[in-house]
Design brief:
about 180 residues; alpha+beta; Peptide Deformylase; three-stranded mixed sheet; 8 strands; about 20% helix; binds the ligand O=C(O)C[C@@H](Cc1ccccc1)[C@H](O)SCc1ccccc1; binds nickel (II) ion; Peptide_deformylase; Peptide_deformylase_sf; Peptide deformylase; hydrolase
Length: about 180
């Protein structure tokens, strides 16, 4: 099982590379990596397991965060209507997005960053993502609001981008009027 010791921290080279596409159909190894990542998220959100294994809560994770430089991400969170969003996505790609931008009111954190980095991380309010699921089947998924922030955070990771790369150094809380702040 993945625990915090398996999650690399900022400064590790895997966090700054453009990860490679996985081959399809998926190998048993790549399927296991995806399942292990999703299991980590579920464990990290389970009070007892998280306490027992000292896991930091996560709603998303990307393979480079466990030093696997492949384009694999996992999401496990509830949307604003309490619907479960739980996916392992292979070779995810944003194929379209809204003109409207958004950011989380409290800024963002990262399982690979052991410090607070204040500031707004402006992203697309809505994204459409094409990917392959754990059965090697093509999927097209639409995300908006909080889940959209999460999937963009994870796709950034497979492109070697950290959330604070988006924060305006001079004015971390700069907000253009086209940006919606998500509470
Ligand atoms: O490091 C990661 O990739 C997991 C990120 C995902 C994430 C960060 C900011 C905004 C959306 C998603 C976080 O560490 S998950 C931690 C977390 C837990 C609950 C709510 C928000 C962030
Ligand atoms: Ni992160």
């Amino acid at each position: 099982m993945i625990t915090m010791k398996d999650i690399v921290r900022e400064g590790h080279p895997s966090l700054r590379v453009k990860a490679k596409d996985v081959n399809l159909p998926l190998s048993a190894e790549d399927i296991k990596i995806g399942n292990d990542m999703l299991t980590f998220l579920k464990n990290s959100q389970d009070e007892e397991i998280a306490e027992k294994y000292e896991l930091r809560a996560g709603i998303g994770i990307a393979a480079p965060q466990i030093a696997v430089e492949k384009r694999i991400i996992a999401l496990h969170l509830l949307d604003d209507r309490e619907r479960l969003i739980s996916h392992v996505l292979y070779n995810p790609k944003i194929v379209s997005h809204s003109v409207e931008d958004a950011c989380l009111a409290g800024g963002e954190g990262c399982l690979s960053v052991d410090r607070d980095v204040p500031g707004y991380v402006v992203r697309h309010m809505r994204v459409t993502v094409s990917a392959f699921d754990i059965n090697s089947k093509p999927v097209k998924l639409r995300f908006k609001g909080y889940p959209a922030m999460c999937v963009q955070h994870e796709i950034d990771h497979i492109n070697g981008i950290m959330f604070y790369d988006h924060i305006n150094d001079k004015d971390p809380y700069e907000l253009k009027d086209t940006v919606t702040v998500i509470d």
